Amino acid sequence: MASASQLSAVREVTTITGLSEARATALLTQFNWSLSRAINGYYSGEFRDIRNASNSTSKGSAARKVNTSAIEAIFDNYAEGDAIGVDGTIRYIQDLGLQLEDAAVLALAMVLKSPEMGRFDRREFIDCWQDLTIDSLADMQQQAAAYQKALTSTNPSSDDLALFKSVYQFTFKYNLAPGQRVLPLETAVDYWRLLLGPLAGDHLTAWLDFMTQVYQKSVSKDTWNMFFEFVLYLRQDPLMTEYDPTGAWPSVIDDFVERMKTTDAANTSQ
Amino acid sequence: MPAVNVPPVLPSPNDLVGTWAYVEHGIDYILVRDLSEGGITSQMYMSIYTAIHNFCISRSNSGNTGMGGFNRGGAAPSRGAQLQGKELYQYLKAYLSKHLRQVLQQIVDDNLHDIDLVQFYIKTWDRYTLGARYLNHIFDYLNRHWVKRERDEGRKGVFDVNTLCLTIWRDDLFKPLQEQRNLIQAVLNLIQRERHGETIATVGVKKIIQCFVSLGLDENDTKKVNLSIYREYFESPFLQTTAVFYTEESKSFLQTNSIVEYMKKCETRLAEEQRRLTVYLHPSSQPELMETCRRFLIQQHATEMQQEFQALLEQDRASDMKRMFELLSQIPEGLKPLQEQLESHVKRQGIEAVVKLSKETTSSVDPKSYTDTLLRVHTKYAKLVKESFKDHTGLVKAFDTACKAYINYNVIASGAAHSKGDSKTPELLARYSDSLLKKNSREADDANADVDLDSRLNNIMTIFQYVNEKDTFQTVYTRLLSKRLVHNTSASDEAETNMVSKLGEACGVEYTVKLNRMFQDMSVSASLQAEFKELSYSSGDNGNGRLAADFAVQVVSKGTWPLPGPKSPFNIPKDLVNAYELYTSFYNKKHSGRKLSWLWNMSKGELKMNFAAGGATGKMSYTLQVSLYQMAILLAYNTNDCYTIEQLREITALSDDILLGSLAIILKARVLTMCGGAGGSSSSKTATPTVGEPNSIYRLNYDFKNKKIRLNLNLPIKSDQRAESDEVAKSIEDDRKLFLQAVIVRIMKTRKELKHMALIQETIEQSKKRFMPKVPEIKKNIDALIEKEYLQRGNDNTLQYLA
After folding, report:
1. Domain B2-68+80-226 part of CATH 3.40.50.720
2. Angle between helices B86-110 and B161-168 (to 10 degrees)
3. Which Gene3D superfamilies does the annotation name (chain B) (predicted)?
4. Do A247 and B787 lie within an 8 Å CB cutoff?
5. Interface ipTM > 0.90
6. Which of A183, B148, B441, B645 is 20 to 30 A (C-alpha) from A144?
7. What are the pLDDT digits (tens) for B74-108?
8. CATH superfamily of A68-152
């Protein structure tokens, strides 16, 4: 949810650092939208830049001249007027070598600032690819493949996780119906399945069972975001032995852990 | 005889030998000669004084190096007035040494030990110190001039004559004597004998101890008290013997005696030592002596005492516990085990008392016996804490913790039926207060009722202070109070306000705001009613024709009163429509803009049965006290004798549960009779038809008979009661949610950013006067506030306030 304060923070970062909006957003996301810490982080080199990370896999060098008209040409290939619509999106995704249900599609939607499902706008499309110094379909394919790899790794690097986190958080607001603050449970379940399968493993199945059978309510942004943190936590403590129910976790996760532990205890006592 | 003593002529001032011989003769009288010879006379005293004076002011005397003054040819004329005295001082010193060595020799020769030694020592000391004071006067001139000058010049080892006497005693008698005869041991033996119960001459011991104190001399300032001799020679061996003595005594005493007896012994021993301090020891020994005694009498056996505490508690031995408390309070950490034992004991007693009560009662718990049970345990141990433990902070705290535990959580308070885990105590307490404040409480005509009532209310407050969930009490109490007020069943206004002010004192005014507003509403409502009554009687030509019946209305504010609204549609009986409209217009005229909601469900009335007569003479008509709903049903029978269920439903418009519930009570009283069910067949006539069956018919019972002239049919319907307790639970839950969110927002508004744990802690802290929030409860409300965007999560488990 890009609130007004977040937008103004992005604007400030772009003026101060000269970063593009996309990278400024990534920077701010990394620092939890704290403007001062983000700027400090940028200048102290703590910014885990997606572009740098992915560029090392692609061949481009930062100094390379970007062919804007090439990007425009690609855009026009799929667009009707100034926007790529649903059909164009489907074709574009396929041409990038992705399936529609790939996690990388969400990464692209985030990076290219898709305003809603099945739509890319011209300006954002061109600016973003330009920022990434990518101007050919082949490079775009490579970038998409890199995203897909990062988002499906069972053992992601910290750069991968930073990307993952922003894509994950983006997914919530991206799927929010206008005027809504919560995600319908079925939607949330679909996207959890889509995004977290490799990362959360068996825990995801248990979680989805819990959400659909016990919790049975729409999913708030806090629950959504904190579940990602919880998935990361589970990587350290898969048996949840150290889990502190009085800690800062939302109560829905407390309830989940409680349920897991009681069923575990019941199973072992049998 | 005295004349012989006085040397006729004063020696020449310049004659040292002559002068000393003259002086020595006098000193002999003072220190050595048998006092039967008469001692020194004042005449002698004067003469010696003069001789010394003369010597000291003489310009020169034989053998005095001071003569050099002349040889230096007036270089310093003032030296002509040079102070003389050194020789005299030396002679005196040698004399005293010699005298005391003789005393020592005599002790050795006479082979004095123990008591004899002590007595001789005291006797000699008395004479010597008295003499020393004399000498000090006689040598006053020497003291004031030569000695002063020497000391002023910083010469060591020169003292005024009195001090000189003491130093010589110390060095030439006391110290060698101690080495050869162990004087101190003799004194200690005396004290030991006293400890074993013998009577000793304490005056002598006191003197000898004063002697030790006097011998401690500060060489630089002789006026300063210096306890070095007392400390080194006496106090430290004394403390050592004390330690040994009590270690052994305790051990052997405990072999044959109980620890309870031992504590009595300790008490006596400590008092004895205390007395010893005042009688003959130096007061400066107080801390160390008592410390030693405490260590060996109490500390060494503290564990044994502490282990006995449980038994004393169980046998209610208050005076022994008091003694134990007093002993153990003297040593560090001594009371800690007592606190722990007291806490768990009181808690167990409370819990067991409630278990016993719950076994005795078969049906639901009587709030009075429950409260009394809680109180009995509290009273018993409050008394113990106060009288035996002198309200010691630590023990009071342990007691309070225990009370909190058993009062809130016991077999009745958190019975299995109570699924939410909240304590039932506050509710039972509120119900008990209701039974006290209601009319018809049993002892209404008791002369002491008022006093009694107040002390009972105080008892409730005693338990109340330990209740965790004060909000539950508040909610239940408010509901019960509202019933008492609305149904006019309160016994006395005074008692009501009394109780409310007690609650206010305990929890602050905020707690009782609503309760007070309820009383205000009642008085406003009463005056409103009076006004209406006047209006309805005096209104014009129609006179009382305007009102078919007495019609009283209570108007109270909706937000304050927890009164349930009607849950069913309702047609006002046509006999009442007139009154209803009159009142509505009256009220709206008075307060335009206020909304009047009628609580039909709370309304009641009385009906007279004119068709059937009863009573002793058979001529009185029955009066029925009914709910408004019942009234609506019965009034219909003014036009017809019999209705089907469908007709009644249409007339009253009531929903089935209320209609049937009301009807069932009327049927039970046989005011109406039911005939025929669904089919109306003969078979269903024999079987009892069910109330409310389709087509069932209800007929007015013309043969109605009852022993009583007034019948109360206005009884609570079962389903109502259950609904109410659910409602109470829900209202408490909602209140808590609001309360917690308000607390959290208030905290975050001032702190802006706070760690999750700190927020939880502070929330508990700020809520506990009202109730003990559980962590999951708090977390749910934090979640809610995040969702409402009052808060957001920051890094490192912090929460941030969003303005």
Report:
1. no
2. 30
3. Cullin Repeats, Cullin, Chain C, Domain 2, Winged helix-like DNA-binding domain superfamily/Winged helix DNA-binding domain
4. no
5. no
6. A183
7. 333 344 445 677 778 888 888 888 888 888 888 88
8. EF-hand (1.10.238.10)
